[in-house]
Specification:
It is a single chain. By secondary structure, the chain is α+β, with helices and mostly antiparallel strands. 23% of the residues lie in helices and 41% in strands. It is built from 6 helices and 16 strands. The strands form 5 sheets. Strands 1, 2, 3, 12, 13, 14, 15 and 16 form an 8-stranded mixed beta sheet that branches. Strands 4-11 form a two-stranded antiparallel sheet. The protein has a two-stranded antiparallel ribbon with strand order 5-10. Strand 15 and strand 16 form a beta hairpin.
């Protein structure tokens, strides 16, 4: 097939860029490149960003009374009323027109592809200012903030551990006997030593002494409490608990693209999909494609907002013949977008790499021969 001349400006620029690519990437000067077939195409496609709104609730429990703002609903010691108020708050968050409109305006203001890196993830879109605060008394202390002392069982008095409540302890000198026996030694008239036991009185009273710990009372004041009561550790001595219920809207983000060229050529139909996959939103899409129009789609029933953008972009597909060291290869090349994004370089680099490997094998063979001859 003979080389063709094409006067479409985009295709001519694409061919020039491809020749530059071949010259820089292959490192070989004896490559011959000719273009045998060119197809210039206008590709159209759409990218749809989908935001599925999800109502999420959160409940936190605090010790003590949580103060509320003017927007909060305050409920005291009524669990049934609290549950009803929570249910109403969820319904309000999912149906309120102003809240939905606020979410819609926020989403419409997002930069295109802002959440692409977080696709298939959830992010906060709207936080409700209203909370339901339920104050309820501590069941352990009956809202007094004080509880029975576990040490003295609310008596305020503890039995003396030293004397066991008796007020007296056994004398340590006579071991409770009330007297002491000492052994005296002396030499008799014959010069022999004699041992004699002597009973001595003890300073205690019948083998006991007054307990120094309690002063003989057998008890002492409990130091862990105040007259038998301690601060309730369940509620931090506040006597109350608070449950704070709040609701927010989150968005599940997904992004999809589809071809709207509707070409019978499967290669043409997949150009935009291949380009978006290769681009991976590392560059602004508007640098490569023209935005035709943007539309916002709403599904209030399913709490879904979509931002759909329609694009078109010039593209070029051509067939090249590459001649290298007496061999010829045919390769299909594809360029996409205004910046001539090289989407498919065909088998050009594979051919050059193969030749490099062959030359390296020959060089290795020569070096082996040289070393063997040494």
């Amino acid at each position: 097939m003979s080389q063709v001349t094409y006067h479409d400006e985009y295709s001519e620029d694409a061919i020039c860029k491809f020749r530059e690519f071949v010259n820089h990437a292959t490192r070989h000067n004896n490559l011959k490149l000719e273009i045998t077939d060119i197809k210039s195409i206008q590709i159209s496609f759409e990218v749809n960003e989908i935001f599925d709104l999800v109502v999420a609730s959160e409940e936190e429990k605090f010790k003590g009374v949580v103060s509320g703002s003017r927007n909060d609903l305050l409920i005291e010691n009524d669990d049934h009323e609290y549950k009803i108020a929570c249910s109403r708050l969820v319904h309000q968050q999912s149906t309120d027109h102003d809240i939905y409109q606020e979410c819609r305006n926020t989403i419409a203001g997002f930069e295109f592809g802002k959440f692409y890196r977080q696709k298939d993830k959830r992010f906060l879109i709207h936080s409700n200012q209203t909370r339901v605060i339920h104050h309820f008394g501590c069941p352990d202390c009956s809202q007094s903030g004080m509880g029975s002392c576990p040490s003295c069982r609310s008596t305020g008095i503890l039995t003396c551990n030293a004397c066991g409540g008796h007020g007296e302890i056994s004398c340590s000198h006579c071991s409770g006997a009330g007297y002491r026996i000492e052994v005296h030694s002396h030499r008799d008239g014959d010069g022999h030593y004699r041992h004699e036991e002597v009973v001595l009185g003890c300073t205690c009273t019948n083998g006991s002494n007054r307990c120094s710990s309690c002063g003989g009372s057998g008890e002492h004041e409990c130091r862990s409490c105040d007259e038998g009561y301690v601060e309730c550790h369940h509620c931090d001595a506040t006597g109350w608990f608070s449950k704070v219920y709040k609701v927010s809207l989150w968005a599940d983000y997904t992004i999809r693209s589809s071809d709207t060229t509707y070409s019978d050529d499967a290669k043409v139909s997949s150009l935009s999909e291949d380009f978006l996959k290769a681009l991976d939103y590392k560059e602004p899409l508007e640098d490569h494609a023209n935005l035709l129009y943007k539309e916002t789609l709403e599904d209030r029933e399913n709490l879904q907002i979509q931002i759909r953008r329609h694009f078109f972009a010039p593209s070029s597909m051509f067939v090249s013949n590459l001649e290298f060291e007496g061999q010829k290869w045919e390769s299909s090349i594809a360029f996409f977008g205004q910046e001539h994004y090289l989407l498919d370089a065909g088998c050009i680099l594979d051919i050059v790499l193969k030749k490099d490997i062959e030359q390296l094998a020959k060089l290795t063979g020569r070096l082996s021969s040289i070393f063997e001859s040494l």
